[in-house]
Amino acid sequence: MTRRWTTAVLDPQLPDGRAVVCSPQGFLLSEEGVLFSRQWLAGLQLPLLCEHGIGHFDGEPVYVWVLQRAVEVEGLAWQGLRQFMLEGDFAVYQKLGYAAQIATWAREHRFCGACGKPTVQVSGERAMYCADDELRFYPRIAPSMIVLITRGDEVLLARSPRFVSGVYSTLAGFAEPGESAEDCVRREVMEEVQVKVRNIQYVGSQCWPFPHSMMLGFHAEYESGEIVSQPDEIEDARWFSIFDLPPLPASRSIARHLIELYLARRSGAAEPVLPG
Per-domain residue ranges for the chain? Predict the structure, then answer.
């Protein structure tokens, strides 16, 4: 039987329900999972900043407890969100990704950005409110593009100094104010590798909660230019044959999906489905 998650804004004053516990270091984890009784958590004296209702699991209310920092809890451990993405149930990771984004927003908007006074939760709405300035602060989503550039049986892959050793991936970058997603693709590719692209086609999107991005995935064909890597951003970039690829990004990522989709289309194999 499939266990069902639904998203909702819940009143934190309700007495029942369960909670996931989120700190800047990840989520609290037991052998049974990440859901804990709120009443049991209340006895742990955790450094709680705030609490937000995020939905229901099998009909039971679920909240995220937003901590100022991770603290040691006997018999429990902290696990980062990336580990859930790589190793755990992907549906659970998606819900934790949502909880992590709500926690980041809640942690960063406890005070008004205009006057510095404390904000309050808006009942029935995912917003923090400053009465003095009549301002509402909603969860932020940062749009970014990610693109696979191809040239026949070759793909252009690059690595950042922040990547796991040896791994190469597709190019990516955040959209600037006033530009379309396609303009972002052209600009980022030119900035990062000095290459022009054409025939830009949208493929799909993926929530990327590190901390609050929406990755818009594209495929583009090479038009012209020689690769020149952007200093401090790109450690190495090169053309790879699809028959001799380097270590690739995590299998559940949209970067990996873009690559595997192109490989499938070149070989005539069944096209993979983007996780989500």
Answer: 5-108, 142-267
